[in-house]
Each structure stands twice: as structure tokens, then as C-alpha cells.
Amino acid sequence: MDYTRVLAIMLGAGIGKVFGSKMHIEALKQWRLPQWFRVFTGIIELGAAILLIIGFWNKTAAIISAAILVAVGISGVITHVRVKDSMKAIATILVIGVLSTYFTTNLSLSRVTYELRIWCIGLNRMIVHSYRKTTETINSSLNPRIKK
Predict the structure, then answer these.
(1) One domain, residues 68 and 78
(2) Cβ partners under 8 Å of residue 140, min gap 6
(3) What is the pTM of this model?
(4) Cβ atoms within 10 Å of 29's Cβ, excluding its own
(5) Alpha-carbon gap, residue 3 to 100, rounded angstroms
(6) pLDDT > 60? residue 113
(7) Residue 19 has what pLDDT?
(8) Do 27 and 49 touch, CB atoms closer than 8 A?
(9) What is the overall mean pLDDT for the chain?
């Protein structure tokens, strides 16, 4: 998934809510929320999508868009938890929220890979060091003639 797909998801969701797709109308009935809230949420999502488009040229707009999308995502998760919806619905929102935040803030995948690799190397060194200390302790207790 990339920047343009996040944009397509936000445009699709916003347009569907504003123009009243059957799926969104039924969902708000199920969640016991008023229909004006569907339109309000759709306008917020469309605004975030517009900021996302502006974010191609202006990083501040992309960051504001990411903040709006995080707020919408948190609200969506709270709504699904409140009505005891399935984990699948909650997970979908979380994945879209994380990916949209990731792409709208222009975080470089190579930078993430680099940071993850550095973290894994550090963890590996810690495990190897702990293993060596443990084996030295065991060996010295089994054979007291081994010098530390």
C-alpha cells in the first residue's frame, strides 16, 4: 500500500459517507449514531484527503492530514469497541490508520528497515552476552578450576 492508495481509501470512505451509501447508513443505524454524524465524518475524511493531496507539495498539510486520520481512526475503534463489534472491523481500522499515518508523514521505508535492523543487532548482542555470562557461570560452578 502506498500514498495514493491511502488517498483512494480516504476519498472513497468520505464520498460514501457524505452521499449516503447503503453500507454507511446501515452501519450508523447499527452503532446507534445519528445520520448527521455520518455526513460530518465524511466531510472530515474528505478534508483529510484534500490535505493529503496538498501534502504532495506541503509537508505540513500531510502531517495535519495524518493527525486528522489518527483522530478518525481512534474514534472508529472506540465506536466498534462500544458496540462490541468484531475484532476484524477493529483491526481493519487500525491497519488503515497505521498505514495512512506512515505514508502521510513520508516516513522512508529504508529508514524503518535500517532502524529495525539496528534494533535486532542490539537485541542479538544482548542475547549473546547473556548466553556467554550464563555459560561461564554454569561452567565455573561445575568446574571450580576454570578461571573467570
Answers:
(1) yes
(2) 146, 148
(3) 0.62
(4) 12
(5) 7
(6) no
(7) 92
(8) no
(9) 75
Residue with the bigger pLDDT between 21 and 102: it is: 21
Residue 87 has a CB neighbour count (10 Å cut-off) of: 10
Amino acid at 129: H
Q: What sign does the CA torsion over 91, 51, 56, 7 have? A: positive
84 and 134 co-located in one domain: no
d(CA 79, CA 85): 9
With contact defined as beta carbons under 8 Å apart, do 6 and 104 qualify? yes
Q: Domain tally for the chain?
A: 2
What cell numbers appear for 55 in the block? 501534502
Is there a single domain that holds both residue 17 and residue 48? yes
Q: How confident is the model at residue 107 (pLDDT cuts 50, 70, 90)?
A: very low
Contact predicate 73/64, CB 8 Å: no
**Rounded mean pLDDT, 56-81:** 81
Contact (CB, 8 A) for 22 and 109? no
Compute the C-alpha angle 84/90/93, nearest 5°. Answer: 145
Same domain, 87 and 51: yes
Question: 144 lies in which domain range?
Answer: 108-148
DSSP 60-111: HHHHHHHHHHHHHHHHHHHHHHHTT--HHHHHHHHHHHHHHHHHHTT--HHH
